[in-house]
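User: I'm putting together notes for a lab meeting next week and I want to include a structural view of one of the chains we've been expressing. I don't have a solved structure, so I'd like a prediction I can at least talk through. The sequence is below, exactly as it appears in our construct file.
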Amino acid sequence: MRKYMIKRLFLGILVLFGTSILIFFIARVVPGDVANIALGSRATEAAKEALRQELYLNDTLPVQYIKWLGDVLRGNFGNSFITKRPIVTDIKQFFPATAELVIMSGIFIIIGSFALGILAGKHKNTWVDGLIRIMSYVGIAIPAFVMAILLLLLFGHIFPSVPVVGRLSLDVTSPPNVTGFYIIDGLITGQFAVAGNAFLHLLLPAFALSIGPIVQEARVLRSSLVDNSSKEYMTVSTGHGLPRNVLINKYLLKPSSASMITVMGMDFASLLGNAFLVEKIYNWPGLSRYGINAMLNKDLNAICAVVLIIAITFFIVNMIVDLALSALDPRMRIGG
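Assistant: Thanks for the context. Below is the predicted structure for the 336-residue chain, given as structure tokens.
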């Protein structure tokens, strides 16, 4: 197992290295002068030359990459062309909002996918299974940003019941910054009303992000449950007269969850990228909205930073998924 994880860690680092090369060269080979794009045509030549020196644009591309990578490894992504601040400062400000949104979506995904998957597996080929199948088709077919707009119209205008814009209501003051997560910070500092308000603001964007993965992973779990229920060990266990709930929860669910957890890991890592338009729709001040604004304004330093953060997220989630699968499937531990 240790050899397997070391191998996965090494391959993940190689993928991150390749991603850094790819995103750097894509950012550098955009048509036009990068300094002119960043500062505008009205900027003085002295200002443009200073930016070229800052970004190492007067060097060859390989030298530029080596110097840029050295800065990144030291935690220096440069300054944003939009905010005029160090990008690390922007990340510290915007990342907690997106992380809070993604974690809440992940909680919805875990609860919803297991609940619907087990329900469909228990009642296969019944109207319950058919209803969940229809829900999965609809949920997978509708993109997250379309679902976000539908929820915004439904619960923000037709049946106004929950807040739909921002992280907090206008009349609510944000809690002291401890973790950057408003719910946790509100609970830690004893401002329970603030934590409740932050939770309500999370509901719609988190549900819009999670509905597609929920129904997709529920179908994966349902298929695994149905396939494994016909195997010999389940036939023997059934012959011993064990209750159906014990069979499913103790003997069937664990081996059937492996394929779903693999898909769930990829979906969870993808939430950071899928949140771009959802954050824009709900005016959520997160890193994904920051990233899309950087793309629209050709903020190359910020684009590189956001893409690298997404790549690192995929790397971390992949490692967690591998650990979870090794716990579920002893063959991975033996094979490692």
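A couple of points you could mention at the meeting. The chain has one domain: 87-335. The chain is about 75% helix and 0% strand.

User: Perfect, that's what I needed.
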